[in-house]
Amino acid sequence: GRSLACACQDGSDHPVLVYEIPSGSLRGEFQGHFGIVYSLSWNKSDTLLLTASSDGTARIWDIQKFGESQIRLLPHPGFVYT
Known about the structure:
about 80 residues, WD40_repeat_CS, repeat, Cilium-Associated_Jouberin, mainly beta, WD40_rpt
């Protein structure tokens, strides 16, 4: 694909940022995690992004819908590392 996803910590927020490659321009971001994001994974068609976090959730995001809530929330009783 032509996108790079990364997670960061900005104060108490933990946004997931998606950049266009090779220009490096920010395509958009997803908000929703309340803890450190440990893992990110694309689906085969690069249209969905799965994130796993220390907030005890895995979330699936539609990269055509920046600024919206995740399309699926997968709760877990502990940290999700992968």
